[in-house]
């Protein structure tokens, strides 16, 4: 992952973000060790994207999740719900203890986001809906006409999967958002390169992906989707071109952080055995120690 | 009861133009209303004036229309979305289901060209499935105004209606109904006639007019016929349906829709559960309408006419009909069997 830009985010701040990301990863691994299993791969690839958004970019307040001027996030790749729930818990929208109930009858946490969970704007999971939902929020923000102190409208962020881009409705929304000049709409593509049956480029190629978005009228940037400094700098600075919606192609590794799952198609949906859970947690602990030796 | 004869000055009016004009009139006073269009052309030439920013043409993109409407509604707006019924119901069914109905968002789905009103545009533009697809969705209100005035009333009433609304409109001008004793209210069946023997339950311009005309003819036979304009299919006014079906030996539904799943399906379900009554469903047969013709000729071809209703009712009464409670009142032998499977036709 060497696509990092000259980062304006200082090292201490990035380190603090990475600690949030560590805990989010642990939550995700724990949730995949329940009786039902969970979408490990696509949640782990998006952990830094979630972390950057919820801890450094989105203007949201866990105590007032429906505040009218908040930024909104739509998880178009709704199967990464456990990554979102873990992030919402880490950010204070949810009690982290609630995560232990994921997928059980007494819980409200199902495998695709539900609106009853504080911080979830709208349910997603059927792919190809999130971008137009985000466009609706972005248009609403513009029609509301309320500008913030910095002169911008509230923003709509949409996290898309890369395999999801095979849905035609994504491009219908992309064309429509550009036509409306919705520059307060910002998409992030979790470009982990994989879908259930293999590499995206083998199943139904997406490349040249950046060119495709540009051709649809979007401002495009790319970075490592695991580089918190780059993510914060780019997403925090969006929109990048007045009058154009923005898309960040974030290059990631599916299952990142769990060595026996990382980079594997099979990491898509996993029910971790007790032994696998122990190995995964140990690996997360090791990588934290390597990066942050003083953290115990 | 209202005089079924058409007032002399009642020129046919298009339900979709009535909708357009009423919406345009309402927009200035309702700052959270927004009109989303998909290149329908319905608003061509309309001067929106100071509310022009609340008319947005998204191009030919119905999925984007429905999903963006959901995003807007979740942000506190009340979007009126415009497309043809076949696209609203079938093309974007999943977006309507998940993004609008699941979230119970107040999107107003204005579906023009419903039924066979697209005429010679053919089956790609006919919508004979939309009531079925929409009424099965939780949270959805489904209403079929029978004329322009009822359309205007539905638009007015939709302002305070919670959740999504499917408003089924036509294309070209259709006759105006005679003034009724009670104005149409969403969710309340409109009693156009009361009668003892047969109850006609209908929705939409031609079916309602045909039902009223059929009731007149049948009255000449000495048959007392009630007519319910069941303009709201969901939530169905079950109490009025059952009250007016009580004592009748036959209920006939009349609609411009495939016979499956629409008004006839809704009425049959309700009666089977609450007040079992022999029910005939008049609508378009289980086939695509490939005959070329205008709206009137197509619905006539498919038997959505006063003559067809009269013929069906007379035949059913001649044969005798099953009575409530399983008892039979049969003046003659068992009904003839047409399909060889023992099912009375």
Report on this model:
The complex is a heterodimer of chains A (296) and B (345). With 296 residues, chain A is an alpha/beta fold. Chain A is built from 10 helices and 7 strands. In chain A, the strands form 2 sheets. Chain A has a 5-stranded parallel sheet with strand order 1-2-3-7-6, with helices on both faces. A two-stranded antiparallel ribbon of chain A has the order 4-5. In chain A, helix 1 (11-31) crosses helix 4 (81-91), helix 1 (11-31) packs antiparallel against helix 10 (274-291) and helix 3 (47-57) packs parallel to helix 4 (81-91). Chain A starts with 10 loop residues before the first helix and ends in a 5-residue tail after the last helix. Chain B is α/β, with parallel strands linked by helices and 345 residues long. Chain B folds into 2 domains: 15-168, Rossmann fold (3-Layer(aba) Sandwich); 190-329, Rossmann fold, CATH 3.40.50.920. Helix content of chain B is 33%, strand content 18%. Chain B has helices spanning 15-26, 62-74, 85-91, 93-101, 130-135, 148-158, 205-220, 238-245, 263-274, 295-301, 306-319; strands at residues 33-37, 55-57, 78-84, 108-112, 141-143, 165-168, 190-193, 198-202, 225-229, 232-234, 250-258, 279-284, 321-322, 328-329. In chain B, helix 1 packs parallel to helix 6, helix 2 runs parallel beside helix 4 (93-101) and helix 8 crosses helix 9 (263-274). The longest helix of chain B has 16 residues, at 205-220. The radius of gyration of chain B is 20 Å and the shape is globular. The two termini of chain B are 33 Å apart. Classes of the chains: A alpha/beta (296), B alpha/beta (345). Chain A binds chain B through residues 68, 115, 121-123, 126, 129, 132-141, 143-144, 156, 169, 172-173, 175-176, 179-180, and chain B through 34, 53-54, 56, 58-59, 61, 63-64, 67-77, 94-95, 98-99, 102-103.
């Amino acid at each position: 992952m060497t696509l990092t830009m000259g980062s304006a985010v200082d090292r201490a701040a990035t380190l603090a973000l990475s600690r949030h990301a560590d805990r989010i990863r642990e939550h995700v691994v724990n949730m995949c060790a329940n009786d039902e299993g969970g979408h490990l791969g696509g949640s782990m690839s998006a952990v830094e994207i979630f972390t950057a958004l919820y801890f450094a970019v989105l203007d949201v307040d866990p105590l007032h999740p429906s505040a009218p001027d908040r930024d909104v996030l739509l998880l178009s790749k709704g199967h990464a719900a456990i990554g979102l729930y873990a992030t919402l818990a880490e950010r204070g929208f949810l009690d982290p203890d609630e995560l232990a109930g994921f997928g059980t009858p007494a819980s409200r946490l199902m495998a695709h986001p539900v609106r009853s969970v504080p911080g979830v704007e709208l349910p997603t999971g059927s792919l190809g809906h999130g971008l137009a939902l985000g466009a609706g929020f972005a248009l609403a923000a513009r029609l509301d006409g309320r500008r913030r102190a910095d002169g911008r409208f509230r923003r709509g962020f949409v996290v898309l999967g890369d395999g999801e881009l095979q849905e035609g409705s994504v491009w219908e929304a992309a064309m429509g958002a550009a036509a409306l000049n919705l520059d307060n709409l910002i998409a992030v593509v979790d470009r982990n390169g994989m879908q259930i049956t293999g590499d995206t480029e083998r199943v139904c190629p997406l490349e040249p992906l950046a060119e495709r978005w540009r051709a649809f009228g979007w401002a495009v940037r790319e970075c490592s989707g695991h580089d918190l400094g780059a993510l914060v700098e780019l997403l925090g600075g969006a929109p990048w071109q007045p009058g154009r919606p923005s898309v960040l192609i974030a290059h990631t590794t599916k299952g990142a952080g769990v060595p026996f799952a990382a980079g594997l198609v099979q990491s898509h949906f996993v029910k971790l055995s007790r032994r696998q859970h122990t190995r995964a947690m140990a690996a997360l602990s090791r990588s934290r120690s390597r990066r942050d030796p003083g953290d115990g | 009861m209202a005089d079924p004869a058409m007032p002399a000055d009642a020129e046919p009016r298009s339900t979709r133009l009535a909708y357009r004009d009423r919406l345009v009139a309402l927009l200035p006073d309702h700052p959270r209303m927004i009109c989303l269009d998909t290149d329908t052309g319905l608003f061509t030439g309309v001067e929106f004036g100071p509310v022009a920013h609340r008319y947005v043409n998204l191009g030919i993109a119905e999925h984007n229309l429905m999903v963006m409407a959901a995003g807007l509604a979740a942000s506190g707006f009340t979007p009126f979305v415009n497309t043809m019924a076949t696209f609203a119901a079938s093309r974007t069914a999943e977006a309507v289901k998940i993004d609008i109905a699941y979230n119970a968002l107040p999107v107003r789905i204005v579906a023009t060209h419903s039924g066979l009103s697209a005429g010679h545009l053919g089956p790609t533009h006919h919508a004979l499935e939309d009531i079925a697809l929409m009424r099965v969705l939780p949270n959805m209100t489904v209403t079929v105004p029978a004329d322009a005035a009822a359309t205007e009333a539905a638009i007015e009433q939709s302002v305070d209606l919670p959740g999504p609304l499917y408003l089924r409109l036509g294309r070209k001008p259709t006759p105006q109904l005679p003034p009724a004793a009670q104005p149409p209210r969403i969710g309340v069946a409109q009693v156009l006639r009361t009668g003892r023997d047969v109850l006609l339950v209908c929705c939409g311009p031609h079916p309602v007019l045909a039902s009223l005309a059929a009731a007149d003819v049948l009255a000449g036979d000495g048959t007392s016929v009630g007519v319910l304009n069941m303009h709201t299919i969901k939530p169905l006014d079950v109490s009025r349906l059952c009250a007016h079906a009580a004592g009748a030996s036959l209920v006939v539904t009349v609609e411009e829709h495939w016979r499956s799943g629409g008004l006839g399906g809704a009425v049959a379900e309700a009666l089977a559960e609450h007040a079992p009554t022999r029910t005939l469903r008049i609508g378009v047969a289980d086939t695509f309408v490939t005959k070329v013709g205008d709206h009137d000729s197509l619905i006539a071809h498919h038997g959505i006419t006063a003559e067809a209703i009269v013929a069906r009712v007379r035949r059913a009464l001649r044969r005798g009909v099953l009575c409530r409670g399983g008892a039979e009142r049969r003046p003659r032998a068992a009904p003839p069997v047409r399909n060889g499977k023992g099912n009375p036709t």
